[in-house]
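Q: Convert this sequence to structure tokens.
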Amino acid sequence: GGFDAIRLAPIDRSALFAAKATALLVYLLALELVVVPVFAIFFLGSAAALGPLAAVLLLADLGLAATGTLISSMAVHSRARDLLGPLVLLPLVVPLMIAATGASEPLLAVGGPGYHRFGTWLAVLCLYDLVFLLVGYAVFDFLLED
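A:
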């Protein structure tokens, strides 16, 4: 009944979408604060790639948070919400993961970081984030209605 109590709060539903997505983004960033330094010690060839890699991770986290919040709000009213969430979310985040992998691949190259097509993949990540943030902001009101 916790979600029903949140829905009864006298706030704009768009603010609720922003709060849920921000909470998920903060959680993902806190997780990466622990994991990325360990990853950098073992796998990163040079520290020069750490800045661009942080940008890629931030954009991927933002897209994952926006998409996850949107899909979870769609699945909350379903009886099969534990099954519906991953089944709908997985195909939607495949382009995000492809773009994040394409952007991070030249950064993790053996001979040092390269920036071949890095800007193109970063633009794809930004476009994905923008689309799902705007769609989530626009339809979150309608998704929460019974």
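Residues 62 and 73 are 17 Å apart (CA to CA).
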